[in-house]
Each structure stands twice: as C-alpha cells, then as structure tokens.
C-alpha cells in the first residue's frame, strides 16, 4: 500500500495536470464550434481544431510539462538552486494561460473580420481558465503542508501566540543613564576598583536597577502582522485558525483584480473592439506575479509594476471610452495601492519625510 506522501504527491500531480489540459480543451472546443458555425457547419474545420488541441496537449505534456515536474520533484538540474521563483507556475502560464488568452483574442479577431457576433466567450471558458489558474497557485502554496492533522510547516508563520511588534523605538543604553561621576567601567570615581569579578557583578546590579526603555508602540495594534492571543473556554472554537485554510482565501483575494479585468473583456462592447487586445495582454502580465514565491519582497514591486499601475491607467481609459464598464472601486484600489507603494517605499526615505515632528 502506498504511503501518505506518495498518495498526496499523486493527488497533486493529477490535479495540476487536469488544470493544464481542461482549460485548453474547453477553449479549443468552443473555438472549434465558432469556426464550425462560421464555415457553414463544416465538420472538417471543427475536427481539425479539435485534433490540433489534442496534438498540442500531447506534445507539451511529453516535451515540457513532464520533464519540469520530474526535475522539480527530484530536485535535479537548475531546479535545485531555485528558491525565489516557481518553475511549475512559469510552465503553467506559458503552456496553458498564454495559449488560452491567445485563442480568446483570435476568436474576437475572427468574428470582427467576418462581421459576425456569434460568441463572446464570456462565461464558462474564461471562468475555467481563471479557476484552474487559481487552483494551481493554491496547490503550489499548500504542497509543503500535510493534508491530515495539524500543520507543521505553517505553524511558524501563522500560529504566533501574541502580537508581533512592527515598530521599535531606540533603546537607551545603560552607560547613557549612569551618573556623570561614574566612569566607563561602571565604577564610581574615587572608589577603589573591585577585584576578582566584583566589578562585573556590580555592573550587572546597576544595569538591573536602572529603568529600561520598553519596546512599546501602538503601531503594532493596527498592523497586518499582529496575531491574536490564545483564548480558552467555550468560545475557543471561534479562535481556531490554520494556515492551510487561509491559503485558499489568500489565493482567491490575490487574483480578484485580474478576474475583474478579464470580466471586462467579456462585455460585447469591449470584446468586439480593439480594446480586447490590451485587456488580455495586461491580464496575462499580471499573472506573471504567480511565478514569484509567496512572501517574497519582490512581490510588492511586481504587483505595482505588473498590475496596479497599468490597471489603473487602462481602467481610466476604459471608463472614458465605454463608460462605467468596470466598478469605480477597482481603479480606486489600484491608485491607492500604487500611491501607498510609492510613498512608503521611496518617499519615506527622503530627508524631509524622516522628521519625527511631522507625524
């Protein structure tokens, strides 16, 4: 009977492979139906597209996906040195997400050139592409964790029994709080220096008797890194938390902005116009953040450069041309996140913003 680790490995591999092939088959079948209707119900055109999709999936699986997964599992070749990015995520984006977005753009172009509006691909195909993209991201994040029992790989990151200080004030040294008539060694001038370790003992007593500067600040109360204290009693079940379940929430929240951008492309006014090209291009660029490992410092800069700033500019242009095709909440989110990134990353390092008297 296979061990639990092998069962988990097989399960993850099957789910990731399904995420690779299902969106391609669904998108290509929908595209084949579109060509079938545009060609006067020509069966040959339909089956040519279906055969092309089968050939594509077979070739990329054998030539790219299987070798990448093998080297990732066995830690062979350059995969052994990879720590800051995820090769499986990169392979998935190139082999699945990019071709699916390309087929969606080609579907729009074919219909516009023919002067027909038969299918805007607004529901099932696009939803499947985005869902399996999120699913692969979740699998990549949860893979180091156990599926049964208490998580041992995320306890250090999620289960902290108390608040985490994110702002610490300078600590006043012991020597700066001594009386002026005391020397550097903590011995009062005019008194004989202690022998046989008594000086160090007296220094330890003085250090313990002096008031200490406490690391107290109310900033950590409002920080996202603060953790609730442990509680006991009957309501303690409400305070239970596990990092594995939080991975699912974080992953969906991580992709909601991209999901909204792709949703706009499904509107007929946008899909049958030239604006569909930049929509899917920007959406694919935002998916490149998936390559970076979670909690990587580079993720913040990538979010600003690949998502928030270009999304804000493009959404303002969409609203100016088509009206409120996207809620105002999303461009407001993009501009606030962009301004916060610029201010806290760059402006706070300037001399004028480092004066404590300002705030």
Write the layout of secondary structure elements.
Elements: H1 4-38, H2 43-74, H3 87-114, H4 124-142, H5 155-158, H6 198-209, H7 243-265, H8 268-271, H9 276-287, H10 298-322, H11 329-345
Helix pairs in contact: 1-2, 1-3, 1-4, 2-3, 3-4, 3-9, 4-7, 7-9, 9-10, 10-11
Structure description:
The chain is mostly helical and about 350 residues long. The protein has one domain (about 5-150, about 245-355). Helices cover about 60% and strands about 0% of the residues. The protein is globular, with a radius of gyration of 29 Å.
- The helix/strand series, from N terminus to C terminus, equals HHHHHHHHHHH
Number of helices: 11
Q: Which shape, going by the Cα principal axes?
A: globular
Low-pLDDT windows of residues: 153-167, 180-204, 209-228
- Beta-strand share of residues: under 5%
For the record, give the distance between the C-alpha atoms at the N and C termini, rounded to a whole number: 64 Å
Structurally, the number of domains stands at 1
- Which radius of gyration do the C-alpha atoms yield? 29 Å
Number of strands: 0
Helical/strand content category: mainly alpha
Largest sheet: none
Mean pLDDT: 79
Q: Helical proportion?
A: 55-70%
What is this structure, in a nutshell?
The protein is mainly alpha-helical and 359 residues long. It has helices spanning 4-38, 43-74, 87-114, 124-142, 155-158, 198-209, 243-265, 268-271, 276-287, 298-322, 329-345.
